[in-house]
Amino acid sequence: MKKGEIYEGTVERVSFPNKGHVRVAGEDSEVIVKNTIPGQNVRFRINKRKAGRLEGQLLCVLLPSPLETEDPVCGLFPQCGGCTYRTIPYEEQLKLKEGEIRFLIGQALIDGGQVRSDGSADYEFEGVKPSPLEKGYRNKMEYAFGDMEKDGELTLGLHKKNSTYDILTADHCQIVHEDFNRILSCVLKFCREQNWTYFHKISHEGYLRHLLVRRASVTGEILVDLVTSSQYPHRKDTGENHDVVKQGLLNVTEDHDVAKQGSLNINEGNIAEEQEILEALCTQLRSLDLEGTLIGVLHTVNDSVADIIRNDRTDLLYGRDYFYEELLGLRFRITPFSFFQTNSRGAEVLYSTAREFLGDVENQTVFDLYSGTGTIAQIIAPVAKEVVGVEIVEEAVEAARENARLNRLDNCRFLAGDVLKVLDEIPEKPDSIILDPPREGIHPKALPKIIAYGVSKIIYISCKPTSLARDLPVFLTHGYRLERIACVDLFPATVHVETVCLLTHS
After folding, report:
1. Catalytic residue numbers?
2. DSSP for 198-227?
C-alpha cells in the first residue's frame, strides 16, 4: 500500500477520539481513517506512511454502519465535521464512547502496573452519564465568515470537514438553541446587504472575521460579539483599503497604540460611519423574536494575522459586556472570552460527579489546579475548609474572584500563574487535589510536584482522555491507584467526552 493510492475497506473498530481501524481485503496492513464509524464500508486515500503505520483520508462512505439508523435532521451533515455520530441513536453513542474509554484506560493501567495476576484491573467503571440535553446543549459558538467557493456569496458558520477555507452557513445547527440560528441568520443577512468582505487568511485583507454568540442555558441571557478587522470600509469589488495593505500596516499585529486608535489609518468619517452601521445591526438584533434575552451586543477588533479570536479592542454597542449563568445553585458572571463549560446542564452532572468522588472534605484544604474561572472550586467551597485555585490566565482568575464575591464565598482564593511555578510559592499543603488541566494534560514537570504532596485523594477531570491515559501511569507508579472512573457526555453527536477519575493513595 503506497501513499496516494485509493482503497476500500470496512471499519472494524474506532479508537478515541475518531480513529477508524480499517482492514482492506487481501492486505495485511491496518489503516487509520478518521471520522468513521464501526461497520462502515469506506473509500479512502493513503496520505501518510510512517514507521509502518498507515493513515488514510476519508473520501466517501460507500455503505453506512448498521449503527446508523437515525435521520441526521441537518442539511450540513456530513459536510460539517462536527457531529460524526449524528446518525447513531444516542444510547449507541454512549456505548461507543464507553468502549473507547475502557480500552484507553485499560492500556494505561497495564502501563502503570495496576493489574491483577489474571490480567484484570480492580477499579469501578461507572459508564458514560448522558447529557441532560441531547440537542441544543451548547452555550457558546464561534462562527467564522467566509465563502464556499472563490468570490462566492458570503457565508457564516462552520468550517467544512477537511477544509481550511470553505465555510458552511450553519443556520440550522442541531447542537445549539434556535436563538443561535436566528442571530446567525440576522447577522449574515445584514452583512450581505452591506456588501462587506470577509478577512482572507492569505492576503490579510477584509473586514468580517467571526461572530461569537453565548447563551446561558439556565438564565437565557445572550451575548453577541461581532469580530472584525480594523479595515473599515472594506466592501466587495470596491478595491478600498488596498493602499493600507500595501503600506504593510496590517502586518503590525503587536502595535497596541494602533489598536487603540480603533482602525488602521482610516479617517474619522469612516469611524463614525462604522459606528452608525453597527448600531443599525444592533437594532435589528434587538428586534429579533428570541426565547432568551439579548443583554449585550459587542464589537471586537482583531488585527491578528492568525485565524483566532483575539481581543485587540472591544466596544460595547448595547447593554452589558457579560452575562450570568447558574450551576448547582451558584451564579456565575461570564465575560465574552472567559472559559466556561459549553454544556451548562451537562457541567452540573460533571461537577456533581467530581464532588461525589471527592467525598467529605469538611475540614480539608483543597487545591483546584488549572481552575479556570473557578467554577468547580466554588462548587466545592461550601463543603470544604478552604479551596485554593491556580490558573495561568489572569482574566479567568479575575472572573473567579468576582464570582466568589458574587456567591459570598470567603473560603476560596485564586492565584494567577503557571501551576508548575505557583506550587513552589504556596505555603499551605493540600489535603486533597482537583486537577482539570487543558486538553494537552498536565505539564510533565508539574506532575512530580503534585505527586510529592502525597494527598490521599486526587480528582482528575479530563476533556481529552488520551492525555489522561498518558498521565495516569505516572500516578500509578508513584503509589496511587485508580478507584473510580466515570464519563460525562457533554458533547452529544460528537466524538468527545469528559472523564472523571478518583485516584487514592494509601
Report:
1. 463
2. B--TTT---SEEEEEEEE-TTT-EEEEEEE
Q: Answer whether 44's CB lies under 8 Å from 31's CB.
A: yes
Among candidates 445, 216, 468, 457, which has minimal Cα distance to 348? 216
What are the pLDDT digits (tens) for 160-202? Answer: 988 888 999 999 999 999 999 999 999 999 999 999 999 998 9
Averaged pLDDT, 458-479: 95
Output 475 or 2, whichever has higher pLDDT: 475
What is residue 264's predicted lDDT score, i.e. its pLDDT? 42
**What does R_g of the chain's alpha carbons equal in angstroms?**
25
- Cα–Cα distance, 111 to 45 (Å, whole number): 33
The answer to whether residues 473 and 112 touch, using CB atoms and an 8 Å cutoff, is yes
Q: pLDDT per residue over 46-71, tens digit each?
A: 998 887 789 999 999 999 999 999 99
Kindly tell me if the per-residue pLDDT of 83 is higher than 70.
yes
Under DSSP, is residue 96 helix (H, G, I), strand (E, B) or coil? Answer: helix
Beta-strand ranges (E) seen in 292-443 are: 293-301, 313-319, 323-327, 330-334, 365-369, 386-391, 412-416, 432-435
Round to whole Å and give the CA distance between 191 and 200.
16
Cell 514507521 belongs to 51
Rounded CA-CA distance 449/433 in Å is 12
Q: What is the DSSP letter of 119?
A: S
Amino acid (one-letter) located at 340: F
Question: With contact defined as beta carbons under 8 Å apart, do 377 and 389 qualify?
Answer: yes
- Read off the pLDDT of residues 119-172 as tens digits, 9 standing for 90 and up: 677 899 999 999 999 999 999 999 999 999 888 999 999 999 888 889 999 999
d(CA 170, CA 411): 44
Structure letter (DSSP) for residue 448: H
Contacts 24+ apart (CB under 8 A), 186-189: 186/284, 186/285, 186/288, 187/156, 187/211, 187/224, 187/226, 187/281, 187/285, 188/154, 188/155, 188/156
Note the pLDDT tens digit of each residue in 197-224. 999 989 999 999 999 999 999 999 999 9
Sequence-ordered alpha helix ranges (H) in 52-138: 90-112
Alpha-carbon separation of residue 338 from 123, 240, 298, 372 (angstroms): 36, 35, 15, 8
270 in Cβ contact with 307 (< 8 Å): no
Q: Is 119 left (phi over 0), alpha (psi -120 to 50) or beta?
A: left
Judge contact between 22 and 31, C-beta under 8 A. yes
Which triple of cell numbers denotes residue 329?
445553585
Question: What are 434-447's pLDDT values in tens digits?
Answer: 999 988 889 999 99
Q: How far apart, in Å, do the first and last CA atoms of the chain sit?
A: 51
